[in-house]
Amino acid sequence: MNIAEQIAAYEARRAAHVARMSEIIALSGEKGETLDTEQQEEFDTLQGEIEAIDGHLKRLRIVEQSEVASAKPVAGANPKAATASRSTSVSPIITVQRNVERGTAFTRYVMAIARSKGNLMQAAEIAQSWRDTTPEVEIVLRAAVAAGTTTDPEWAGALVPYRTMADEFIELLRPETIIGRIEGFRRVPFNVKMPAQLTPSSASWVGEAKPKPVSKLTFELITLGFAKAAGIVVLTEELVRFSDPSAEAVVRRDMIETIARFLDEQFIDPTVGPVPGVHPASITYGAAHIDATGSDPYSLRADVFALLGMFVGANMSLAGAYWIMSPVNALAIFMMQNPLGQQEFPGINQNGGVFFGLPVIVSMTAQNLIVLVQPRDILLADDRGVTIDISREASVQMDDAPTGNGVGLVSLWQQNMVGVRAERFINWAPRRPECAAYISDADYQPNLAGSPTVPEPGEPGGYAGLMPGLGVGGRPLAGVTPGTEEARRSRRTSQEDKDKDKS
């Protein structure tokens, strides 16, 4: 924002604070009481913020006056003169951006700790080799060696590069996850009570001098506590020792795929129920659903119509909603064709797109589900950070669903491997239970041109008479080559016989 916009914004904030202070005083005056402890604290806080705003407004106006005084008219006699008049004596700011892929700094941070066996001093020495392209890795590792003190005002500044690296990794992870690709979640902080409306309110027409109806609303309080998602990536010793871009890419991809796959499964798997103090339920747990009625385009339309009707019938808005499905189902829908060889649903493909006017998110974790979700009615708490731990001596149960019974343990030390454990604090909860619905057992198949499924004449979507060589109902005529004159005569004869049978 420019200076004028900043002044307007702070003046509006000051006016809001003044109005709130007046409201607090008015409420106490109506009760004939002095301010209670909470009101006093709020009033004093507002007063302090107003004083700070006044001081800042004074400084902004000084800067504004100096800019007005130093302004000079633009000479526009010719392009060269206009360019010269717009230039200032201040040297241009030149920024240099490194030529490395996003997430490289965080990946190198993990590799340095893994290679040094958790020794931060040794890890900092290893990071020196990357000083020219990712100097923040060495900065963070050296800062982690020194102890923090209350007398060093610059000590916490070393945490900023780590936060930057972690944010970069999260941004790299975002397009790989369902949660990261969906916009519109209600983002809330951890451990804060949020009201969730269980029953809707109602409104009605009211005549003159008639009482206004008051509907009863039912609420419950939802608190999103801390929930931790953790994943372990096992890498070979040789892989973490190589300072090669290809090795770094493998490490980065392994970490991303491990975290992304786990979060996606937990987010949409209907079998994932809540475990208090451990993890939330999936958004589809206990959600309304229908079973797929078939695999052809007409069954798909019927299923989608039924699902949308169920969604709207629960007073859920479709504005901002998303489809979630597997790339296999998305590709099958993309390949569906009508009897003319045209795409039935041209807006969708295996990478996503638009389906019945709503955006599509594809994920292999969807499997045989097609999920319809409204993110505006889902609460999401996310600290946007990743914690990394390294071990060479641990014994790991190589299973994506470990039982913890000690069976099938693999010694990382014996196998010459390194375990990287990544943890992320994230939690979610539906604001309304109807925020998601899904089609189960979805196994739609493409009906390629040459073997189309054609309904009987008079049925919705009927194509009878459009494809010579196909009988009524889309059945090929025996011994007839499609597209020939014989096929057209046979088609007419077949239809005439059917009409005679009806009469």
Task: Write a brief structural summary.
This protein is an alpha+beta fold and 503 residues long. The chain is 38% helix and 16% strand.
Strand content: 15-25%
User: Total domains, how many?
Assistant: 4
Largest sheet: 7 strands, mixed
Query: Can you list the strand order of the major beta sheet?
Result: 5-16-10-6-9-8-7
Count of helical stretches: 13
Principal-axis shape equals globular
Order of helices and strands: HHHHHHHHEEEEHHEHEHEEEEEEEEEEH
The class by helix and strand makeup works out as alpha+beta
Structure report:
There is one protein chain. The model is unreliable at 145-159, 449-484 and 487-495 (pLDDT under 50). A hairpin with a 2-residue loop joins β7 and β8 (352-355). Helix content is 38%, strand content 16%. It is of the alpha+beta class. The strands form 4 sheets. Strands 5-16-10-6-9-8-7 form a 7-stranded mixed beta sheet, with helices on one face. The protein has helices spanning 3-31, 37-70, 79-86, 104-115, 120-126, 135-145, 159-173, 178-181, 237-241, 245-268, 297-313, 327-334, 485-502; strands at 186-187, 193-199, 218-223, 228-236, 288-291, 322-325, 348-349, 352-355, 358-362, 370-373, 378-382, 387-391, 395-397, 409-411, 417-430, 436-440.
Topology:
Layout: H1 3-31, H2 37-70, H3 79-86, H4 104-115, H5 120-126, H6 135-145, H7 159-173, H8 178-181, E1 186-187, E2 193-199, E3 218-223, E4 228-236, H9 237-241, H10 245-268, E5 288-291, H11 297-313, E6 322-325, H12 327-334, E7 348-349, E8 352-355, E9 358-362, E10 370-373, E11 378-382, E12 387-391, E13 395-397, E14 409-411, E15 417-430, E16 436-440, H13 485-502
Parallel strand pairs: 1-11, 5-16, 6-9
Antiparallel strand pairs: 2-3, 4-15, 6-10, 7-8, 8-9, 10-16, 11-15, 12-15, 13-14
Helix pairs in contact: 1-2, 4-5, 4-6, 4-7, 4-10, 5-6, 6-7
